[in-house]
Amino acid sequence: VFFVIERSLHFCSLGWDLSLQTSPEICISIMSVSEIPGKHIALSVFVLKNCREFKLFPNERTTLLSQADDLQILQYCLASYNKKMGNDFEAISKDVLDLLEVIKQSTIHTIEQEILKFQCEYDQEKNDKKGSPLNTEEENAISKDDQINSVSEYKNLSTDNILTPDFRTSVLNLYSEYKQSSNHCSILDAYVNFIKSLTNKSSELHLTFKTCDDIHQLKPDIEDYFTLQTKVIQVLKRINKAEISHHDSKSNAIAPHDLSPCIGQLTPTTPRIQKSNDVNSTLNCGTPKTPCSQSHKTALQKLLVHDIFRSYLHLLVNSRSQLALARVFNIPDRGLDHLAFTHLKHEASDFGLSMYQTLSSYMVRMQLGGSGYAPKSDSPLLVYVKGLGLLLELTQKLQTVIEEEPKLRAACRRVVNIIKINLIRCSSGKFPRQLVEPVSESIYESLEEIINEVEDSLKKSPEKTTNRGSTLLGLLCVQVIHYFLDRSSLSPTELDL
């Protein structure tokens, strides 16, 4: 199963059927992470920002998956499992969507259980401080019933389809292993890490939010997760010493009709094809609609170009991302086909390295030469040495810029320009200047907004030296790119549908 709009070859073995449909209601409003008095802050941006600042991800290179990324990886894992079982390398759309729903419900269940546990402890301490008796047996029974109902709702999910528990478990294990090996996480994974740290009373995150003055500015920003996000905000308010009675809690809770785009700019600017009202018309289609106008086709092309820029930036901060590497493997044209990608993947598996590490190691051995270093004479990658060398040369050039350019803005501008020039000069002519330049300018404007935030933050605290093997400038540039990728992953496009 492969992409059908210009992406089929470039995504190589990581295919995705465009007939897969995600929920149309996910409409994410992103505002600047900067604290703007009187304006709302999108909760997901707030969560991601704090996950990075308090080091709640497995490592600093962890990158956020968009909806499209998540679907593509899940479909790849399902197809891989089918292949392992002796079937064709393919995945049925309904099965992928069922699995995605299982993952969502399971993760939401985990988060809500953490919140329930915290609320019970909070209420217990509150009663103890007031000298009130402990919860009655009836109250305990109600809490227990609520917990059982939550578990039962999750267990009953997807029992009426062909996905058996063992089948689901095997595929979901592959999915988890893939994310872990590629340094990826979903937005719900970020919420899990955030809420587990937040409800730990000895954590730095918990102690920080006890005196934070801006909790009231937070607002749900993903309609599908509205209930969950409301609970997260209420936990933050409780920690913030907001003593709210049960009655006040009900009256002050955010009502569904209050959900509206957060005030502020959408950052970064991701090309759009359809307004939210137009999306519903395509939801029940079994196959993707053919673009019916030149403007629609141009919009799709801009989405592809934006995705290419994003993937190159992705590799700069997370070289283990197989997904990002697949998207730029032969863009611009380097003579690298699906077979080259497959051979590189097998080589990486044999050595226990990421694909990019394998690529770098292979080219270094080629350059060193000699019987002690050179790859085997029968290596299937030998016929692709030129193309692999061009790919490594471009990514290393980008890495050198962010580490050596003395000015942060200039570093980001140069990185964007290098990618832009390479696309425009593509021998196939698929990326004309009039298509690429508007996207590159939009991306740089988004990066510049984040740079402003970083510079404002630096003014509040003196610069510190680093001993992590990189310059302070390089670390700041990586931070800017991380924030850009986080926000672009939260911005839905037609490729998510």
UniProtKB/TrEMBL annotation:
Main subcellular location: cytoplasm
Subcellular location: Cytoplasm; Nucleus
A Gene Ontology term for the protein's cellular component: chromatin
InterPro entries membership: PARPBP (IPR038932)
Keyword entries, A-Z: Cytoplasm, DNA damage, DNA repair, DNA-binding, Nucleus
Transmembrane segments: none
GO biological process: DNA repair; negative regulation of double-strand break repair via homologous recombination
Identification of the protein by name: PCNA-interacting partner
Record bears the keyword Translocase: no
GO MF annotation list: DNA binding
Family: Belongs to the PARI family.
